[in-house]
Every structure is written in structure tokens, then in C-alpha cells.
Task: structure prediction
Amino acid sequence: MKRALTTVLAVSALLAAGCGGGGSSNTATGDANGRGPIAFATLKDGTGTVPKLVETWNAAHPDETVRIVDLPEGADGQRQQLIQQAQTQSDSYDVITIDLPWTAEFAARRWVTELPKDQFDVDGYFAAPVKGSEYRDKLYAIPHFTGAGMLYYRKDLLDKAGVAVPKTWAELKEACAKVLALPEAAGASCYAGQFDKYEGLAINFAEAVGSAGGEVTDQAGNPKLNTPEAKAGLDLLVNSFHDGTIPAEAITYKEEEGRRAFQQGKLIFHRNWAYIYALMNASDGSSQVPGKFGVTVLPGVNGPGVSMLGGNNLAVSAFSKKQATARDFIKYLTSAETQRTHAKGSAYPMTRPVIYQDPELQAQYPYLQVLEQAINTARPRPELVRYGDASSVIQEQVYAALSGQTSTEQALATMQQKLTEIAQGT
Amino acid sequence: MNTTARAGRTAALLLSPTFLVLALVVGYPLLAALRESLHRSGDELDESGFIVSGDRFVGLDNYADAVGAARFWTAFANTTVFTLVTVAIEVVLGTAMAVVMHRAMRGRGLVRASILVPWAIPTAVSGLLWRWIFQADGVANTLLGTDLLWTSDGWPAKIAVIVADSWKTAPFVGLLVLAGLQLIPNDVYEAARLDGASAWQQFRRVTLPLVKPALLVAVLFRLLDALRMFDLPFVLVGPQKGAVETLSMLAWNEANQVRYGPAAAYSVILFLYVVVIAFVFVKLLGADLLGERRARRRSEVSA
Amino acid sequence: MTALVRRWAPYLGVALIVCYCLAPFYWMVVSSFRRTSDIFDKSPLPSPWSLENYQAVFGGNNAFGQSLVNSLVVAGTTTVLTVLLGTLAGFALARLTFRFKNLVLSLVIATSMFPGISLIVPLLKLFTDIGWVNTYHSMIVPNMSFALPLAVWNLTTFFRQLPFELEEAARVDGCTPWQAFRKVILPIAVPGVFTTAIIVFVTSWNEFIIALSMVNQPETQTATVRISQFGGVSGFDSPFGTQMAAGVVVTVPLVIAVLLFQRRIVAGLTSGGLK
Result:
């Protein structure tokens, strides 16, 4: 057995040494002006609205029909699938759905094609998501959905305690002190966002730093974490965990865990996206807070805070042989008219300000104006080709600081150093 | 001599389809990975911001970087601990399950069905299920009266992974051992019983030696699988958490950042580690794993 | 007292094992019958009971029924091919005398030592080049990568345990080694072959990452891939109840099928010449 195993290894090593070539050449083989039926790789829409929009398109374009290909749920599976298709230069997908922060990377790897700005109505969208879809001042994607964090609060309890809706962190903590003294708030905690070790933690950290007047990185990705503002931001989160303002279990919260805690009455304040509004207002007994909460912009140190931008972009695969059709379809799917129909069918936040002015939609989604305000002041994530690495560094250090394994100074210093290396491309 | 040569030809004929398939689906990717592990794709940007394409040969740099990182050793330790603990638990549970399944008693059908259930649930779904059970306010904490954060980055996460993995794969061991048990003729037990052996003695002296070959194969394959554990900790606790990150997860993580060279290096290191463990296992426990000695002795006798 | 313990201990063991195996599954079933809106409930029974999740699994444009058929085709074909090839190889390794036998066995098992996730990208490149993407065989052939080594080893061990005298007797009667194998060994080996088949079938039925990577058309996708694509209404809310319902739908037929197989195993045992 021993000799046999050794032989296996020796043979493998020999074969490997003699097996060269086969490296991938990164020349895109797509056709920029091709037309015909295309495939649209996207995340499944539980409301079924997107399939309906596609049907409308197909009825009008019988020679350029669109077929929806579902990507796996969750950013990791989605990314893996897209990378594999790009790696094999497959033309299985023509239009792809990418997370906002992947835009720079996909552009730099030539996996998506540049989109001529004059062909797309770039001024009709919110400025920040468009900025987030650019790489080196060229447009590579069109914002499909956007999103910004908002502060949900227990309106009923705030009213009862006679406190105003807080605009700053200090006011928020004061409000909590009063509300938690109420018998109705027994067992509740003050605040939670998303603090599990995943992309959401990087976002919550960036918002804390932004709300303290700093920034994690500039738009080019150079870190700015050796500032008092950055320290104030991280200290705010760490101290809030320490003094119980944020409950200990929030270290396991992603979006859904946080929503669950809030709608079970366990939180007074909660940072989350727009989607939870309708779910928490459900009157079928699943939520204990329907009609009892309000929503406002995130708090800051001296006034309203800053949100990070979320959302999805549509891009044309560089390996697509029908790129002209792909571009037309993206124009259709993000046009003002389509977005209005889309918004009526699903609560995904659209990317055109005009939607937020629609009185009908304002009635359907009462948070629309707060959301518009949050999006208008929201920051895109940095234009980093190695965004994934940068985010990992941030998650690693912030998580360690929150769970008390490292000091805030140490965490910030490590992040500053590693993010500098990433930004400089070493 | 002539018969041996003919047997050799027959054997080659019978084995070739297996080797053809394995060469295509494992041999080829394995060689591709070995080659990949000696290369690194560029991550420098050219003037217009595009990544300079093309692989460059870096020798053993990917390997040196891998073993130089603290994260690698954490993952290495996790992989080892998970493997040893889960396989040990699974052997005990699996054997117990097999014995119960083998016994003719009332409700045997129910037992068989229930034992198969955990194993038949798709891994991704069972990962979600256990994540659900181990939530901060989930059933596990309610039943245990604790408020542990099972899915955060700490020792409870290790326990959660071990519990979920043992639950899921013990039936695999159970089934293989059961097949071995069914080969044991009843008269062997009769004889033991006549000799006045207790149930435990029967199990130790008769059952265990006779199911040993089947059990060893089961354990060997569980070892190989556990060493490559990936989806369960990934879904249950999450990526990039030091408490549960395994070597497979490290490889996945590198690939997900489009660093196929380092990813391949991690895979090759893991491959070598598995080879070593399998070798040690066969040496320590499985000298008779293939029944080679017994078979040879018998054929000598019969010749 | 001891008699009492001896009489009831096995039943206690049975009860413990059944509870251990079924408790988490019970939770899965219960969750699958809750409404999406009370999915956070912790009550031991759903209130109210709802088929909403099962409707979601089979309704809409999920094509879940089709994906079950695909899973059946892929896992079934993988099983038949693997058991066939594995039986041939197992017979050769267990019953024939030839050189390099241990090397062959080591090579076979070495192929299941490489991390599965690292096999995907090279294979995907290869299959793209030869036009296999989106076919059943692009899933079946890679599935054999993990199924074959197990089948070969298991069957080899199994065949080896059978007494050599049987073949001797057959040979005396004028059978060739192959005839001896087919007419004498194989019938006794039925439990081993079926066990191998069950194991291969279950593992391929649950295979996810290969099926996800090799196929991107809904018409050929398997059930596990479909489950991973169930979307919520917002992109953040994962439809947990629907996934659990799909898990139940995928699991239950498998358990029933295996139980039917098991009966065959027992039948094979009693008809075999071992007693």
C-alpha cells in the first residue's frame, strides 16, 4: 500500500511537470453589434414581476426574445456562477445581474462591455448608483435596483415616552433610556443593524464611520481610517455592544434576523433596507408591530447620518454574441415606464427619482420620500478592483473589534495598512 | 503463469472502463490543478485600468504563501478536529444503527426509514435547517435553556458543525455496516450463544471482527469526505469564520476572488494531506483492509 | 431486573435513535407547513396549517416537477453505470490474481481525495470545449467521480469476503471464472450491490455543485439546483419555508425508494446460498 501510494504521487508529479499549455487567453469573443434571442441571468423574483416585464418585451420583439436564467440565491452563489461563466468565456448569458461593488472588478477583467453613455439616459437615474456603475469614468452597467439603509423606530413607544424621533446617536441613546423604562418595552434592546461577518458588516461599519463625519475609503479606494472620525465610528459600535445598547446576539444578525427581532418587539431602533417595511406591516399576525413603527434617515453624530448604497446592476457580458439586443433590453428594463410598472408589482427600490415622485406609488410605499432622501445622500462603495479582498479585511477586523478580540486602535491600524496595500495593487 | 497472464488480461479489460471515467473526470482536472498551482494570474492593472491577462509561472510560491499564513494553520486544525471528532461519533452511531436495523424486531421498518432520513436530505437544505435550529433565538437554545451564539465565530460554532455533520452522515456508516452484518451467517451466533457468550461478548468477538472490513471501508470514505468538508460549515456558520473554516473553504475563498493559482495550491495541499491520512489509517488499522492476506492464505490452502 | 433491562434496552435504543434522526426532520416538516409570515414561530405544530409553501414549490415558473424528473434521470443513470463498472472492477480486484493490484486500488481511492470544488473549473472548461454543457451526461459523468471509487472499494471488499470455496466448486463443475462470478458469486453479493446502489443513488440525488455549474437551462436543471434558486420577494428574505417544503418533497420519495430496495436486499439474502 505504501509503495503504491508513493508511486501514485510520483506519477502525478511527472505528469504535471510535463503538462504545460492550456492557459486561458482573455480575448473577448463577443459580438458588439449582434442581435437575436438572448439570455438574462438574474436572481429569481419572488413576486413574479420581472417575468411579466420580460413577456411584454418578448411580445414586442419576436426575433429578439429574452429567456430568464435564474442565478442561485445569495451573493456567493451568484458570484461563483458568473465567474465560472466568464472563466470559460461562455456566451450562455447575455445580460447579467451583478452586485453594485463588483462593477469595477468585472470591468477591469473585461468580463462586461463598456456601455456608451450617450445611448443611455444616465441623467434620469440617481447620481450615486450611476457613479457606482462606472469604472475609470466609463460606464459599464446600468443601475437596476438601488437601496439605502434607513432607521426604523417604534413610533408607539417613542410617543408614549414622549420623545422625538432622534437625529443623532446621542439622541437615540437618550430616547432608548426613556423608552426602555416603559413596562411595554420590557426585555427589548435599543438598537441593531447587521453585524454578522459578511458584506453587511462592512456596510454597517462604513455607515458608522460616515455618520461620524469620516469615510472608510475615498472613491478610489484609498483608506482614511487613521482619522478621529473613523475611530469615533468604530468606537460607537464597540461601545454600544459593551453597554448593551446593541444586544449581544446582534453579532449573528443579517437582514432577516434583525427584522425578526424588530417585528417581535425586541428592538426599539433598527437599521435595515426598505424591503422590511411591508413585511413588518403585515396584519396576519406574523408581525407584532404593524402600524406601530416609523422610518427615518440614519442618525449621525451631529445631524443626519450617511447610508451606504446597495443594489443590483445590469451589465452586458463581454462574451455575448448579441450585445446590441442585450443593450436594448437593458434600456427597456430600466426605462421610466418599465420601472413604474415594476414598482407597482414589487417593493424593490427603483433607480429613477421620477418613480419616487409618483403619488400613487407614494401611497403604496409610505417610506418612499425618506428612502429618496437616504439615496440622495448615500455613498457608493469604493471603485476597487479587489473589492472582495477589501471587504474581507474590513469584516475581519471590525468583527474582531466588536467581539472584543482586538482594540479599536489595533483594528483600524491593521485595516489602514491592508487596505492601502489593496488600493496600491500589491 | 499462463493463468496469471490471462487473469491479468481479463483484469485489465474489466478495470479499463473505470479508469477511463476516472481519468476524464478526476485525472484531467487534477493535472490541470497541479499546473495551475504553479502559476499565478496577473492582478496588475494596465494604464487604462484593465487587468493584465495571462498566467505567469511562480514555481512553489503559491505553496510557500499558503503554509506561511496563520489562516492556513487555523483551517488545517479545524479540518483535522472536525474529521477526527465527526468520524469517531459516526462510527459509534452508525454501528449502533446498523445493529438495530439488523435485529429483527417490531418497528424495524420505521427504524430503517428514520435512519435514512437525515442522509437523504440535500446537504444545502440540511445546512439551512440546522442554521435555523441554531439561531440566537432558535430551538436549540430554547430546548437547552442556553443563550449561546452558535453561528458566531466561536467554539459553539464548532459544536454546531459537529452535531449537524454527525447527524447527517452516521446513516452512511450504518448502511455499509448493515451490508456487512447481513453477510454473517446465523449459525455463527448460534455457536457463540451455545458457548454461553453474552450479548456484548457476541458483539465484540463475533460481530465486530466480521463487519470489520465493511466498517473500515466506511470509515476510510468518511475520512476522505470529512477532510474535504465544505458546504455544511459554509451554510450553517458562514464563510471566513476562523472557528469553522476548513481547507476546502479556503480554496473556495481564493477561487471566489479569482485567484485560481493559490486556490489550486490549497487543493493540492489538502489532497496530499488526505493521502497521508489515508495512508496512516490503512497502516494503523487496515492492515487487513483488503482481506489480501486472508485471501492469499485461503487460495494457498485450496491450491 | 436484569431480564427487564435486557428485554427493554433494545427498544430504548431504538427510540433514542429514531428521535435523534427524526427530530430535526420533524422541525423541517413543521416549518414547511407554516405560512411564510409565521415562519419564525416556535410552536411545535403549525397554526394555522398551510400548504402555501408546497404551492410555491410546484407553482409559478419553478418547473420543480421537471427538475425532479431530471434528478431521477441523472441519479438513476449514474447509479446504473457506476454499479455496472464498479461490479466489473470489484470482481477483477477481488477474485483475479494479477500484478499491481494494490497500485490499482490506491489509484482508484486517490481519485476521491481531491477536493470536489477544485474539479469544477477545469471540467467546465473541458465540457464547454466539447459542447457538453447543458446535457445530462455533463452531470452524470462527473458524478461518477465520487461514486465510482466508493463503489469499487465497497464491492471489492464485499466480493472478497465471500468464501473462495464457492468458486472452486463452480470451477470443478466446469465454469470459467466469469461464469463462476455471474452464477455463483453475484447472487450472494446482492445485498452488497444493492447497498452500493443505494449509496450512489442518494449521493447523486443530493449532488449540487456539479449540477449547478454544468447546466444553466431550467429544462435540464436538477431539483437541488432549483431549490437554491427559490427567490424571496425582496432579495434579502430567503424563502425558508419553501426551501424546507422542497427539502421534504425531495427527501420522502428517496426514503420510500430505499425502503423498497431494502426489501429486495433481504429477499436476496434469503435466496442466496449462504445459510
Remarks:
- The domain at 148-308+383-423 of chain A is CATH 3.40.190.10 (D-Maltodextrin-Binding Protein; domain 2).
- The longest strand of chain A covers residues 309-316.
- The radius of gyration of chain A is 24 Å.
- Chain A has two domains: 38-147+310-377, 148-308+383-423.
